[in-house]
Amino acid sequence: MKALLLKDFYLMKKTLKAMALIIILFAFMGWQDKTSQMMIAIIPIFTLLTISLFNYDQSAHFETYAMTLPISPATYVLEKFVFGLALSFIATCIAVGLLFTKGLIFPLESEFIWQAPLLGMLISLVLLTLSLPLFFKLPVEIARTYFIAFILILSFGGSFVASKITLPQISFSQLILVLVLMILGLMSASYFISLTIFKNKFN
User: Fold this and answer.
1) Which of 63, 64, 124, 62 is nearest to 89 (CA)?
2) Closest of 75, 50, 57, 48 to residue 195, by C-alpha
3) Closest of 99, 97, 91, 117 to residue 176, by C-alpha
4) Its pTM surpasses 0.70
5) What is the pLDDT of residues 91-146, one digit of tens each?
6) Per-residue pLDDT tens for 1-45?
7) ∠ at Cα 145 (46, 79), nearest 5°?
8) What is the pLDDT of residue 134?
9) Rg of the Cα trace of the chain?
10) What pLDDT does 39 receive?
């Protein structure tokens, strides 16, 4: 798996300038924004960069090539999940650093500096987990179209449902626990679905 991770991080190096520009742009907008939401938005953007790797792999036929190497389908699929987790963690650290810096100049609650990025990371991981089977199954362009449609439906549908029901009041720690358990369940299901899809490509 180490070789696959290094390969993907090397591919990400090609987008370093664009990634740095995104950080600067969103940091600037977050600096002007009282809610600092744009600083937190860095997290889902970076986490979902994992999806761009499928474009590289499919265009270079790397999936087929990888199966000629001593790499199991399970390892190949698991690496994408691990890489997504790594990107999400890096982006969360960047967001915490930006919020901490802003908090030195403007009044920000100390809990917000770590709670908001943590929540952003967990939500980003939910989206990534839901998207990966789709990208293992379909060509990138088609999968991306379906994924965007799914996000729009989820956003508008979630907003509509939330406006019609009364959600129970829970603490932040309870919310994090619920999200962590949800992610563990979704990630396990997503992994096995993705693995089944990937194996069927080469049967």
Assistant:
1) 124
2) 75
3) 117
4) yes
5) 999 999 988 888 877 777 777 788 888 888 998 999 999 999 999 999 888 998 88
6) 888 998 888 888 877 778 888 888 888 887 877 777 888 888 988
7) 45
8) 92
9) 18
10) 85
Contact 46, 91 (CB under 8 A): yes
| 63 touches 201 (CB < 8 A) | yes
How far is Cα 17 from Cα 194, in angstroms, rounded to an integer? 31
Structure tokens at 158: 């979630």
CA-CA distance, 135 to 84, in Å (whole number)? Answer: 13
Token duo for residue 16: 């370093």
Distance between CA 123 and CA 168 in Å, rounded?
Answer: 19
pLDDT of 161 = 64
Shortest CA distance to 142 belongs to which of 156, 157, 131? 131
Task: Name residue, tokens 């742009």.
Answer: 25
CA angle 39, 11, 135 (to 5 degrees): 80
Say if CB 15 and CB 50 are below 8 A apart.
no
Type of residue at 144: R
Distance of CA 118 to the CA centre of its chain: 13
DSSP single-letter state for residue 139: -
